[in-house]
Fold this protein.
Amino acid sequence: MPIPAELALTPEQLDELMLSSWNMRVASIGPGTRINLTPLWFGWAGGKVYFYCRGQKVVNLRRNQACTVLVDRNEQFPELQGAMFQGRATVLEDAAAEAADPDLEKVRLQMGRKYAGGHGEPAEPRRNESTARGRHWRWVVFEPSRTVTWDNKKIQRRP
């Protein structure tokens, strides 16, 4: 059953969720039909999700670009808010592909502010300098083709 439209996040609320949340989860198809689910830090620009990762996630996305991204917050049902995106991920294979992406520089600066200090420690914001290296360290750009959002705070409570 689909989520009622009145419970969806507004575009402004979606941007706020995506710009303030630290973690997302991305599900890709591993070898065979196994699902690989990984929490990652991320950026949000141009309606796309950006993340820098390595290893099996990159191998999976090279083989099959289809994946799902989930960003949510709060623990108790009446407070849950989130967004689930289904779409395709593109691995940026080299510095030229990184430079050609229209939003990656914005994301580098955004992530440098959001994750300054690494785990909440105070630090000066800095540009995320990560770049393609080795066989599997890569930036990935995820473009949603379907988005479902929810804000359980909008559910009308019974007296």
Notes: The chain has one domain: 5-153. The domain at 5-153 is CATH 2.30.110.10 (Pnp Oxidase; Chain A).
